Amino acid sequence: MAVRKDTRDGTWRYRVVVKLPNERLIRISGTPQINTKAAAEIAEREHIQRVLSKPSVTGSPAKEVPTLTKFATEFLETYVASNNKPSEIESKRMILRRHLIPFFGPKRLDQIKQREIEAYKSRKKRTEDGVEGLSPKTINNHLTVLRKMLSLSAEWELIPNVPPVKWMKVPAPEFDFLTFEEAEKIEKHAPGEWRAMIALALATGLRLGELLALQWGDLDLVHGRVLVRRAVARGTVGTPKSGRSREVPLHDRVVQVMKKHRHLRGELVFCDMDGRMFTKGACKCPLWTACRRAELRLIGWHVLRHTFASHLAMRGAPLKAIQELLGHASIEMTMRYAHLSPDVKRDAVRLLEIRGNQVATS
After folding, report:
1. Average pLDDT over residues 141-161
2. Under 8 Å between Cβ of 174 and 184
3. Cα(69)–Cα(75) distance, integer angstroms
4. Which of 257, 267, 314, 327 is the most exposed place for a label (fewest CB within 10 A)?
């Protein structure tokens, strides 16, 4: 095995010379999909097998390597349609149509190498004609789709190997959240029935799509809990973002708010006067109205979710519990709440002073 770990970026790679039946030597190299030594060894063996089974070696007819444009149709209709949610399907379709196909479309899949990928990153990052370039995170989203296409084409033996993809460095995400006082004010100043929706968002951390798809059958106001099992995205109701249902307890005050909100307009908890589901666009103005009345900055609904998680962290809730309540797929997503507000940090440091005084007086 010719496997080694690159000291520059920690990526496992393989590089080996293969002797063909005609005595010719060729050098092959690559990186595994999973960055481990074992995965690199497996990828190396599979690459060797692909090389030895090539038509030029076995004498069988050569397979035609499709262009990215041609393969995109098969990729969407087979793999994406079978393995992704409707919102993810639409997102990948948009990335291909607006970005990947215009740049890589005429190229065969085996012509898309690391050099071409780096050129794409540079092109998308560049600012032209006063138009701001794309963010590193957005470009990485495009590269994720491209790499999956190349990886799938390698699995289907259309190309010999997957070129390495170097992800762009993404700065740590910043997010806004309300203080305890601000949260009380925005709920108090919410217009009409929107108070119940804002109160539930602050008390549960549900995403806007989860709030809009919430049904009365998901609320247990006797035992104080809500079952999050559906969400709406791009007008289609499906599972929550993580793909799994979760249960979130309700405190007594929000239970009383939801009891007062009870209506007979249909199964949706939050809906218009005809029982129809609100659009996400229709939810913006009521929240901004609450912000103006409370004399707060204008925020979006996701800030209420951040507020729920941040308040839990500031109260000392374990990150694992916060992860489960938010429905995060991994603890890494929850780690953004590990930091606390400046006041709480300052109080934490003062504990050292208290401890020091105790030692001095003993």
Report:
1. 93
2. no
3. 10
4. 267
What 357-361 contacts at long range (C-beta under 8 Å, 24+ apart), as own/partner pairs, is: none
Q: What is the SS3 assignment for 117?
A: helix
Contact (Cβ atoms closer than 8 angstroms) between residue 337 and residue 309 = yes
Instruction: Look at the alpha carbons of 304, 306, 312, 318 in this order and tell me if their dihedral is positive or negative.
Output: positive
* CA gap 97, 69 in Å, rounded: 9
Half-sphere exposure (CA, 13 Å, Cβ side) for 226? 25
Please report which helix (H) or strand (E) contains residue 26, including its range. strand 25-30
* β-pairing verdict for 3-5 and 12-19: antiparallel
What architecture does CATH give domain 68-155? Answer: Orthogonal Bundle (1.10)
Task: Please state the rounded mean pLDDT for residues 82-97.
Answer: 91
Contact status, residue 294 vs residue 189, Cβ threshold 8 Å: yes
With a pLDDT cut of 90, the percent of the chain lying above it is: 61
pLDDT exceeds 90 at position 70: yes
| CATH among 3.30.70.20, 1.25.40.10, 1.10.443.10, 3.60.110.10 for 180-344 | 1.10.443.10
Among residues 102, 106, 108, which one has the least CA distance to residue 120?
Answer: 102
53: tokens are 């089974």
Which sequence spans correspond to the domains of the chain? 3-58, 68-155, 180-344
Rg (CA), the chain: 27
Cα 68 from Cα 120, distance rounded (Å): 14
How far from 105 is each of 70, 100, 195, 362, CA to CA, in Å?
8, 7, 49, 76
With CA atoms as reference, report the closest residue to 207 among 287, 285, 308, 294. 308
pLDDT tens track for 188-209: 999 999 999 999 999 999 999 9
The CA-CA-CA angle for residues 230, 228, 81, to 5°, reads 30
